[in-house]
Amino acid sequence: MEKSINYSYLPKIIQNHNRLDALLALRGFACLMVVIIHCAPPRNALIYQHYDFSWLIFSHGAVAVWIFFCLSGYLMGKAFYTERYLSDVTGVINFWRNRAIRILPLYYFAVLILSIFVYPDVLKFENWGYLLRVCTFTYNPYIASQPIAFNDVFWSLSTEVQFYILVPFIYNLSKSLVVKQKHVIVTAILIILVVFCIKTLSWLSFSHQINHQMGYAFKYWYTPIFNNLDVFLCGFLVNTLIKYQKPKSHNIESRFNYRLLWNQKYVAIILMILLYLFTANHLYHQELWELTNRPGGWRTITTIFIFQPLTAIITSFFIFKFELDNYHIYSKNEKLSFASVLKNPLRLLEVFGNLSYGVYIWHMPILGKIYSIFTSNTPIEAFYHRLVATLFISVILATVTYYLVELPATKWKIYHSSSN
Fold first, then answer.
1. H or E stretch at 247
2. Residue 162 C-alpha from the chain's centroid
């Protein structure tokens, strides 16, 4: 195994389960939210008794990305808090190396394929600087001066990779500052307030452009790493919150606490559903731009200042409740297979979660190619056709690249780690 990995933290208790990986399912749900909104659901399409229910299919793409970021913050922090990686030089290098092995193969494979078959203009000499930004994770698709458009969703991967660079430093800082459970909430509040001030400064500097030009809102407010740190770090701090929870003993009181925990898990699920409904309704009625009798631009005051920290808090609560029960116990879940799905059909949700990285990368170029094919006099029919076709092709392509690119990279990482 890697020299920096220390498994002494694992208790002797080993339990085998065939339970749903709730975080993987949430990741798949967030990916689905992104695909739905990119397929451009129509307005005034679902009318019942003179009430417009069309907002139900207007999933908020920004909220979905923040869910990704919060999950990433938690999982990257967990890698250090569980001592999978130590915070010394060797451990940090191994962490960055394994992150690169996870992200880069599919990312650069997609860049190659898309550059050849979808965005060939990027290969022209005058556009090499733009291609360099794509390849170095400094990509922002909303800069007006850019000569061509590449895959829009790549911006979030750039932000993710920038966060990975900061993770070891954040971990070492948190070890010295957050030493008690009560410090976690205080630290989270301070982080939200600091990022709030950063976002306020951005808004004051570019308020006119942000409210009237979509590109400015994305470039200066939505995509920068420092404007998203509250989401990443709230997920990251869940590790500290769980760390100071005492492992439960197996007695009558612990069984009562177990039932209570499951009730709280249901609350976490309900809160996540309410977050979807609330933000979808707001997107439909308040944030849509370039509509009749509505000024152009993005109504980002509510989204950035309220929905962003709200998403961080609700997602962190979801993670906390679903991870608390097994964080202190080495719990080996049964490998996802047809047999495991037969015993627990809910695990079907994990399939899409496993493919979500590929679906997220491929769906926009696919949608761009098929969008004009699916037209209809009934807008909702065209939307459903686009959605089904995009999901179907994306899942197939994601499955191919999962076995062709992602899985071999994972096996190589395991082999390389075991040989050290």
1. none
2. 14
